[in-house]
Amino acid sequence: xxxxxxxxxRAADAEALKAAAFDLSPDPSMVVDAAGALAAxxxxxxxxxxxxxxxxxxxxxxxxxxxxxxxxSLLERARVEGARVRERGIEISLFGLPPFEADGAxxxxxxxxxxxxxxxxxxxxxxxxxxEAAGLTSIMGLGxxxxxxxxNPLAGIRGAAQLLKGGAKAEDQPxxxxxxxxxxxxxxxxxxxxxxxxxxxxxxxxxxxxxxxxRVRALAANGAADGLVMREYYDPSLPPVLGDEDQLIQxxxxxxxxxxEALERTPKAEVRITTAFRPGIxxxxxxxxxxxxxxxxxxxxxxxxxxxxxxxxxLFDPFVTTKANGSGLGLAxxxxxxxxxxxxxDSDSRPGRTRFRVLLPVAKGLKLPEESAEVAAE
Length: 378
Hints:
Strand content: 15-25%
Structural class: alpha+beta
Distance between the termini: 52 Å
Order of helices and strands: HEEHHHEEEHHHEHEEHEEEEHEE
CATH topology of the largest domain: Heat Shock Protein 90
Helix content: 25-40%
Number of domains: 3
CATH architecture of the largest domain: 2-Layer Sandwich
Strand order of the largest sheet: 2-1-5-4-3
CATH superfamily of the largest domain: Histidine kinase-like ATPase, C-terminal domain
CATH class of the largest domain: Alpha Beta
């Protein structure tokens, strides 16, 4: 057998193995071509929907989806980003079946088609069991003991910054003001540490998330992310978030600082901050009878080495950390604050890309845009 014939045989065997793996996968999987029609479905998908490909493929797949469908958004993201993307806890409504909830993953196949895989779930996967919640509450209970010891030096720092501002050059005064503002913010956060331990709800009000992110960027640029390339891709039509400004600053500053620290040895390192409006995302949350709408998406992404796969499922638990000297409390607090805001957070990581996605509700009584404006170009 000639080398060319041998290579062709090996390629045919590889394609046969791929087809077998697709068909035997326990998760329902579908291939949607560039025109939006179903090109292939596996046996699990046929069993789920009760039809074979000949019936499922009648008409265009995308055109059969309801307006604002999270599944359509997922497929479009995979095509635009050219990479595998995931959505957790999305509502699926297809082929006349009652709506159900599933995790979805979409991966471009290189010819304009996308492989869509569904994983049927009963919850979001970031909900906390009783032991985890109890552990976090115990940690936050230390706030009452530490508040006095922390606030005393904070008062001294603020006083010193105020004196420095009075005698500083005009170009240095904004930095002194930044120190004062941050000292005030930390003082307010210390005051709320008791509220965390006692499960007191956050004081929520309409907040411009882009103002929060601009503040976070300024703080990071003068701290952990000094000299790091940071890019923003903001949706200018985003309505206000229902949230607590100080706590939201804490959430995103923690995520940006983590990203910056992960990039210490990465050449051409950068952090991307993206906002988008996702009207099709409705998620089932523990303790709530109906799916809730969380259309405001904020993503913090870095191009670092990634997070070990074994840590991803427990990343938001107390005392879990990838840092040699880390406490493992930062992401646990982030998850708690996001949960207190009625939102959810998840993570997705591989070498060269780590993403933390926060989904938040819109402030009540505000008119929502029909769809997201285009993200600003780089």
